[in-house]
Aminopeptidase N
Amino acid sequence: GQVIRLSDYRPPAFRIRHVDMRFSLNDGHTDVETVMEMERAPDTDAAEPLVLDGDALTLIALDCNGVAIGAERFEATPDRLTIRDLPPSGPFTLRIATRLTPETNTELMGLYRSNGVWCTQCEAEGFRRITYFLDRPDVLATYRVRIEADREAAPILLSNGNPGEHGDLDGGRHYAVWDDPHPKPSYLFALVAGRLDVLTDTFETQSGRDVDLAIYTEPGLADRAAYAMDALKRSMVWDERRFGREYDLDVFNIVAISDFNMGAMENKGLNVFNHKYVLLAPDTATDGDYAGVETVIAHEYFHNWTGNRITCRDWFQLCLKEGLTVYRDQEFSADERSRTVKRIGSVHGLKAQQFPEDQGPLQHPVRPRQYREINNFYTATVYEKGSELVRMLATILGEAGFRAGMDLYFARHDGDAATIEDFLTCFAEATGTDLSQFALWYDQAGTPELYVTEHFEAGRLTLSLRQSLARGAAGTGIEPMHIPVRFGLVGPDGTDLAAEPTAGTAEVEGDVIHLVTAEAEVVFSELAERPRVSILRDFSAPVTLRHEQAYEDRLVLARLDPNGFGRWRALTDLVGEALRAASMAGAGRPALDPRLIEAVVACAAEERLEPALRALMIALPGEAEIARLVGSNVDPEAIHQAREGAIGAVATAGAETFRRVRDGLERSSGNFSPDAASAGRRALSNALLMYLSAADGTPALAAEAFRAADNMTDRMAAATILAHRFAETPEASEALDRFYADYAHDPLVLDKWFTLRATVPSDATLDTVRDLAAHPKFSMANPNRARALIGGFATGNPRVFHQKDGAGYRWTAERLGELDRLNPQTAARLATAFRSWRSFEPVRQEQARAALSALASRPELSRDLRDILDRTLS
Ligand code: HT7
Ligand code: ZN
């Protein structure tokens, strides 16, 4: 495949000012007519031909200024249209007609049909599957779209912008026109048409403009969009208050679609969503689903300013919109829910997803310098690490400085296709700060290590800090970066000392040490006694912390660090290290120190801590996380045994406390409400149920909880305990059968059932997943279902996926080969489950290599999957 490089960026040779499109939707084919108002860019060669992007297109007609272009002047292939001898200067119009078959579009890029509904997905390069175009984000145009369809088949006709004229046509057909006055790149184009129900509402902006809000769903499901609508209105208010950003069209439409490659898409004025991130009911959705909807609704809405009004110059700048928008949605959730709990969740996700990516064969800088398939760069590094860079900027510049930089960015670049340099320049200018060293974070791949040592003598504490970054596959010159290190010195009573540094080589501002050199020191004097050092609070930089700290001090911090995040980290790091050691030592070694067990148990009962935080503190790291801590020569079986041993030990030691706490919680819960506090109580209650079931050694408690559950969170938690811990019991099969019988008609719940069965850590599961792939309700063509089964198994069942005989790898690789023929983007994404294969012990490594090589040897692979396999194997 061809490599696209950032260094090859050239501005477009032609401009497209305005686009007028007409869609005629019919069963079996769609006709598209596109009229573009164009001109040559100044200072370009007047003889240069126009080269438009296409992908699997059929050209029906082509003319310029109303005159057909002769065959000798153009060349059309499915993926390119080259036109010569266009006017050397001045505006001209180009008309292009294409014919599409959305019914056979299984890739779900461009125009496709999902359950009869026509819909589009254009990011990153889907618009070129609709018409020939300059399909790149730095070509911005206004759009007018006329959609025509059978009124029965598609009573609803939607596109970007504001609604215009509409009416009836002969033969039972009708039409609607949409006008988008905001110039936009083609990747933000959208069209939806079909039989849809709608939930409507209104919103008054801060300047007093009324916006009509609508969420469209498949028939009969609009009432399930109520929480999404509420989240949308809260997002709109928040963006006005926090960033002064107001919505800019008369309507804001959201459509929930069943077949969708990712979470959602921020098309201007017409967001299209995976229905998983819209549809909720207490009986079908977990608290995690509610939180996910809130996050994704907010994320797509926030894109209206960070992504749409200001877009990306090229796809290398993807983090400009994604990292920034993730930062914004994280801040929104922190404000709406619990800041500490939200931060722990984000850091947990970063370590689970981004760290392995940054430390394996798929490593790349937050702003990549090259790609072969852009769809493979919608990664945890671009999104999550990208958001951490924005967070560091906010930490370094302070709240007011950060806001001043954002204000300047919005004012200066509204309507632009911008770069990371443009973005950083706004913060540098608004605050008078030199950010050239900070910019290295965008270009240097890998997770820096931060080494911290302490020395205390005669009332004097010296903190020594050192940073190092391994030269990775994507490495450039490795220069020291600007690492903001938030810290606290915790006194014996569990409060922070108000100590100011008295000497040292690093600048300290409030509670932040600015490490800008490879090594530095900070000294605090005249301390009455040795404080406990709580370092990298709130995870102030995306680094691996190597803090040489006394075990006793860490136990103390796990009990009384006044910073909730610091406390969680102190405890879970101790537990993680103990499990790492136990996994590496092999069977027979007790996993946890009794004092650590006691600390975990004590957290469960600590009334000062909100229940959601307690649930996080008592959760043991997952098997994948322990594998990451082990790092090399990983044996997943040993990890499984060590973790099970630790669960047993905590369960036995804590049984009484856990029962008492859980009984107290249950009494205080009433009718279902998805709010964060209620969700936190359910999380704690279910975490305790797991331990109590383990202590009891029988499925009785979980079976009772399953029967009594009046919401999906509790039902799922009980079913998971039964299926995972009591797999062979009648109670487990009864629950799984009941679950299926009750929800077989509901695709989003059925996905949970597929995942639940695929993640059972038992020897029988390989046969189960084989059966499930042949189940009448399984469909490779539906990405959610494929992810539920294949992704659930490959990323949610380490013990069986990494089975020593390689059967788990082979089954997965074969399914990916099948999926690739239908939906390359989803196949490529699922293939990243193999990214850490080199960290396993030699026998498994060899099995993984063989399975991957067999898949890679297929001649007909997509560019998407081939790119992932080549990089994974390289
Ligand atoms: N900007 C979107 C990313 C995206 C996408 C979404 C749906 C299907 C295919 C897609 N390719 C890229 C989603 C977001 O970050 O908000
Ligand atoms: Zn996004």
Remarks:
- Residues 276 and 748 are 7 Å apart (CA to CA).
- The mean pLDDT is 97.
- Residues 299, 303, 322, 325 surround zinc ion (ligand 2) (CB under 6 Å).
- The longest strand covers residues 14-26.
